């Protein structure tokens, strides 16, 4: 059966834990086809962010046009958008689709991933047209968002692990995938939380990198490993 298409508009993370890598593997794990629009390139490892390069606006527009014209995604998920122009672009082009906005402002490591003008564009333009927003507690406070039908405020969970780099990206991508597969927001949010929790359990003993290792986005248990 042809899978539904979900597009992520986000940044890359060279460590493979967060951003577009997390989004695409999560889409694949949950049975939707993932398309991607790269809005920024970051140099990151498991300990922090070393460099950020926003992709030129016209290149972001060209990627988004290509996906919207040809693949007709049922759902759109946004991560790191990097500039206020791109935040407004997504608001203009994607308001008529299922739209999951993960308002990425600050990485778990504390690195600032969005400036004040980006935050203002989220508030004024993108959040009002989102199907659901998935801020963490710091982002909700910065954006004046309160939990409700269209806002899921994310916070850690019961799995004891330090391999949690990319949990927010993985969670919001799982939510978008389940919306694309037909679930309502509340059900999709529950399924996304269960998915992240399961994957965090699988990767909790991994030793990748010197800092906070990645979520095991897609991996199934190997023989003898209990989730
Ligand atoms: N330790 C955990 N155990 C179980 N579930 C978790 C855990 N940590 C996160 N989750 C799930 O993932 C969701 C997103 O996590 P969180 O709010 O920590 O992301 P975040 O701070 O945006 O992450 P990041 O910025 O690293 O991508 C939580 O709401 C929860 O459902
Ligand atoms: C590219 C990218 N997007 C989002 C986050 C948030 O975790 C991150 N660290 N890096």
Automatic annotation (TrEMBL):
<keyword id="KW-0808">Transferase</keyword>
<protein>
    <submittedName>
        <fullName>Bifunctional hydroxymethylpyrimidine kinase/phosphomethylpyrimidine kinase</fullName>
    </submittedName>
</protein>
<keyword id="KW-0784">Thiamine biosynthesis</keyword>
<dbReference type="GO" id="GO:0009228">
    <property type="term" value="P:thiamine biosynthetic process"/>
</dbReference>
<dbReference type="Pfam" id="PF08543">
    <property type="entry name" value="Phos_pyr_kin"/>
</dbReference>
<keyword id="KW-0418">Kinase</keyword>
<dbReference type="GO" id="GO:0008972">
    <property type="term" value="F:phosphomethylpyrimidine kinase activity"/>
</dbReference>
<dbReference type="GO" id="GO:0005829">
    <property type="term" value="C:cytosol"/>
</dbReference>
<dbReference type="GO" id="GO:0008902">
    <property type="term" value="F:hydroxymethylpyrimidine kinase activity"/>
</dbReference>
<dbReference type="InterPro" id="IPR004399">
    <property type="entry name" value="HMP/HMP-P_kinase_dom"/>
</dbReference>
<feature type="domain" description="Pyridoxamine kinase/Phosphomethylpyrimidine kinase">
    <location>
        <begin position="13"/>
        <end position="143"/>
    </location>
</feature>
<comment type="pathway">
    <text>Cofactor biosynthesis; thiamine diphosphate biosynthesis; 4-amino-2-methyl-5-diphosphomethylpyrimidine from 5-amino-1-(5-phospho-D-ribosyl)imidazole: step 3/3.</text>
</comment>
<dbReference type="GO" id="GO:0009229">
    <property type="term" value="P:thiamine diphosphate biosynthetic process"/>
</dbReference>
<dbReference type="InterPro" id="IPR029056">
    <property type="entry name" value="Ribokinase-like"/>
</dbReference>
<dbReference type="InterPro" id="IPR013749">
    <property type="entry name" value="PM/HMP-P_kinase-1"/>
</dbReference>
<feature type="domain" description="Pyridoxamine kinase/Phosphomethylpyrimidine kinase">
    <location>
        <begin position="153"/>
        <end position="215"/>
    </location>
</feature>
<comment type="function">
    <text>Catalyzes the phosphorylation of hydroxymethylpyrimidine phosphate (HMP-P) to HMP-PP, and of HMP to HMP-P.</text>
</comment>
């Amino acid at each position: 059966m042809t899978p539904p298409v979900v597009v992520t508009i986000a940044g890359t993370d060279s460590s493979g834990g967060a951003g577009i890598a997390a989004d695409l593997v999560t889409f694949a794990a949950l049975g939707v086809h993932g398309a991607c629009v790269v809005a920024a390139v970051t140099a990151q490892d498991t300990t922090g962010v070393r460099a950020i390069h926003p992709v030129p606006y016209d290149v972001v527009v060209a990627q988004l046009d290509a996906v919207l014209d040809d693949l007709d995604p049922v759902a759109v998920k946004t991560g790191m958008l990097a500039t206020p122009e791109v935040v407004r672009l997504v608001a203009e082009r994607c308001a008529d689709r299922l739209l999951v906005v993960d308002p990425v402002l600050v990485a778990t490591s504390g690195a600032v991933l969005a400036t004040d003008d980006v935050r203002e564009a989220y508030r004024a333009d993108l959040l009002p047209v989102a199907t659901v927003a998935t801020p963490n507690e710091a982002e909700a406070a910065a954006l004046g968002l309160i939990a409700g039908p269209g806002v899921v405020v994310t916070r850690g969970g019961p799995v004891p692990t330090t391999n949690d780099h990319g949990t927010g990206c993985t969670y919001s991508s799982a939510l978008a995938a389940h919306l694309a597969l037909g679930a309502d927001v509340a059900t999709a949010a529950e399924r996304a939380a269960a998915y992240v929790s399961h994957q965090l359990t699988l990767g909790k003993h991994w030793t990748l990198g010197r800092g906070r290792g990645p979520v095991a986005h897609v991996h199934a248990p190997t023989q003898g490993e209990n989730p």
